[in-house]
Fold each of these.
Amino acid sequence: MDCAPWSDPPVTYVPATVTRSAKIVVAGGFGVGKTTLIGSVSEVKPLRMEEPITQASAGVDDLRGTPHKTTTTVAMDFGRIHMAGGSLALYLFGLPGQARFQPLWEDLAEGALGCLVLADTRDLDASHDALGLLDSGGIPYAVAINTFPDAPGYPEAELREALALDPYTPLTTCDARDRTSSLHALITLTEYLTEHRSAAVLETPR
Amino acid sequence: MTGPRRDPDMVRPYVRTGGKIRARDDVRLESVLIAASGPTDSLGPDPRRVMRLFTGTVGGLAVADIAAALELPPSTVRILVSSLMDSGHLTSPVAASDHQPESDLLQEVLRGLRSLV
Ligand SMILES: Nc1nc2c(ncn2[C@@H]2O[C@H](COP(=O)(O)OP(=O)(O)O)[C@@H](O)[C@H]2O)c(=O)[nH]1
Ligand SMILES: [Mg+2]
């Protein structure tokens, strides 16, 4: 791969054969395996972007009437897979699932084919924010339970109820450290998207 | 001020984009850009850093690749790239008219993922 000149860090160029690109979002709480999954399937070294967001502390004013502000930096990893004879680049973006990042999501998840939500049975509640963001953004998703060794196992019906999943939302398991297992989770999502997306898009006002 | 959809409590830093405050709708994180043989007039420092990444390559870069390489926020890069497309410095490798229907794209992605396992 060629590198950019001057002092900017090296980049891996998209081959000139690529004429189309698509995006799948990987979402979930902190430590659930987003970075790991993206790293295990990406064909290029995963990269990181950082988006600073300035958030006013609600209801707090100083003497000039300016609200106090806190700046949070949201880190996002991403990777890339080339397919369709090198004509298509599929980008995978890991986005943090906290509800307060909704404006960021509106910008960054826009146009995504769909989202793979990673969940950890030791902390299923951590998935609710991501699921809420996806529901309100009309982004179709599948859920993959990441199999951590000390995580409790539950029957599928209980998991669906705990996560408040629609009956047709795919629920699978994966080991994000394993490339094939991660690919299968992405295939489960994409199969669902091909079956259900067209109808969903017609119903979603733009 | 901010657009109607913006949460007033969340303001992103748009200071480095030379006054342009909105990205084009077709410039997303995954949008791939290539250099166009456009004008070589004077650009500000950040647009020049973006264009320098495209020097001496026929390859492309997505908005996200540019944000990572230059350590700039992706929201800023979307706007920088939008300006550089408007000014003819960057272009997308696909003509907007031959966009494939979405179902074809999904089928390609599904086929592509299956071929990897
Ligand atoms: N056992 C097991 N460990 C995992 C799995 N996925 C991630 N981990 C580990 O969990 C930790 C957090 O993962 P990371 O990908 O950084 O989570 P992120 O915060 O969602 O990006 C790392 O130490 C990983 O090695 C998995 O599927 N199984
Ligand atoms: Mg991470």
Amino acid sequence: MASITLRNVDKVYAGGVQAVRNVSLDVADGELVVLVGPSGCGKSTLLRMIAGLESITGGEIRIGERRVNELEPAERDIAMVFQNYALYPHMTVFDNLAYGLRNRGVPRAEIDRRVDEAARLLEIEPFLARKPRALSGGQRQRVAMGRAIVREPQAFLFDEPLSNLDAKLRNQMRIEIRQLQRRLGTTSVYVTHDQLEAMTLADLLVVMNKGEVEQVGPPLDVYERPASVFVAGFIGAPAMNLIEAKAVNGRLTAGSGALDLPAPAGVDTVRVGVRPEHLHFGSADGAGLTLGLTVDAIEPVGAETYLHGHLDGSPRTTLIVRVAGKSLIPPGTRIDTHAAAGDVHLFDIATGKRLPD
Amino acid sequence: MEKRAIFSNRFLPLALIAPQILITLVFFYWPAIQAVWQSFLIEDAFGLSTEFVWFENYQLLFTKAHYFRTFTTTMLFSFLVAFLSLTISLLLAVQADKSIKGAGVYRTLLIWPYAVAPAVAGVLWIFMLNPSLGMIAKAMRSAGIDWNPLLNGGDAMTLVVIASVWKQISYNFLFFLAGLQAIPKSVIEAAAIDGAGSARRFWTIIFPLLSPTTFFLVVVNIVYAFFDTLGVIDSMTQGGPAKATETLVYRVFADGRLGSDLGGSAAQSVILMFIVVGLTAIQFKYIERKVEY
Ligand SMILES: Nc1ncnc2c1ncn2[C@@H]1O[C@H](COP(=O)(O)OP(=O)(O)OP(=O)(O)O)[C@@H](O)[C@H]1O
Ligand SMILES: [Mg+2]
């Protein structure tokens, strides 16, 4: 196994698109890092650069102690699982798994042993003689995983491996991938735009935006202390409420009401963030945030209900309150809500960066 | 999946296919039947009387050593044309598939030969390779190569093979390129990560995945070499020298139109017809099954 290190990595495609900008990242040995971000933010590009499928415009990538910038994909000793699985359609499942080993001249007995072991681990033994087109989506996914693990590589690279599966299978495979990765202890980089995958799989979460890294950290840290408005809005569903507030006499106000918060020193306007589940009914007693809103629509999702509304005196500032169980509040009702001071996030309006607490 | 169209009116489908059937009957079946009929007749030299002779025309054909020579010439010629045009166009398609920049220009240039009529293609190559006029022939002579397709049978064969191959490359190229572009890029990338070098990727991944296209083209190219090269041969060598470039089709043409041996020519046509039917049957049988992978 090996660590993966990225130093100031840039990628400019022919045609001038800068897909990745100055990315530095340390993936420790055995760790699973998840790259998450909106479509087109450069996740796949970065992963493909680690794999050697895209040239590196600037910076350095190391796998273990080796600088790999100039190495061919085959020489980097990594395995990749593609979104469309990329199985060899004319080969049986056995041959799909054995192909990489044969190319490397592994002795036959050893190939048989490793393929059998992987097949047992992934429960694909009954399909070894079949061609990929005779498999279901979930089975193909397993074969793709099998092809990665038989090689016993330094690192696994995953590019949205579960996005072609239905919701139920996706949940199951997500858990299996996590267990498998723990068991094998193979350093992994996993690309997704699925929140749940990102939060549950990652040892370390990397949030990307427009080719740059916005924040790196353990998933819960990122959730609890988003470093920017972008991360605050991207991680968490439903998204964090973001309110533009003004400082008046050292206190923050927004819409037609006071927020009951002291203004940070030296700022006129600030963006206030609070997660839907941190808003509670009633007004604050003591330090905290107060928000008055009118409910516009209610969205029951079963275990909980989302109240969609708007801030007093500011119809364009939409807010979401997350309530456990069912809610019987009819649309049009005005309600008072509050949040604890520790659940309130403040961001600079101009830069979008988090203000020091 | 239901592939049949459903018509409520029973006569509409008949009316729709009637023109196609009519054309097929008039231009294909009628001449074919005529050829079969004709092959049973012998006409005297002045075309005054004809006699029904059953298979005598066929017997005559197979007793001539000459006919077998034409047969082997055709085999050699067809093999060379099909093999060379397929190999060259596959090479070109692989290159075009790799490069993104300038691929448009490259493709357009490669497609041109297909738009050139066979006889014109023949004339074009004659100009370049004619021993007394041609630029290439001149260059070869000054390089000390003895080149004379008017006298040397081998040279003449080379000449018609070059012209025929050149004309067919575009067609093959388009199919190969489409076939290559249908192979998912990620499959080839997976093979690269799996440690296969580019030659190994080609032979173990790309070539097998291209096999349905290749098989289809092999049949098409054999049919082309058999039949569509008539114009090229006629404009370049007229089957000569000493019948070194006379293929089965050219012989039908020469015997029938130039030599006016209608019966013998018709008998040859019928044999050719069986060859085409055979090739087409093979093609349908295997294309339907998509060449297993
Ligand atoms: N081969 C290419 N040539 C030019 N630009 C490219 C190429 N591949 C990707 N891009 C551009 O680079 C940017 C990043 O693309 P990338 O595929 O890495 O995004 P992504 O984060 O993986 O998105 P998604 O979640 O949709 O897969 C995009 O703006 C894309 O248009
Ligand atoms: Mg992607």
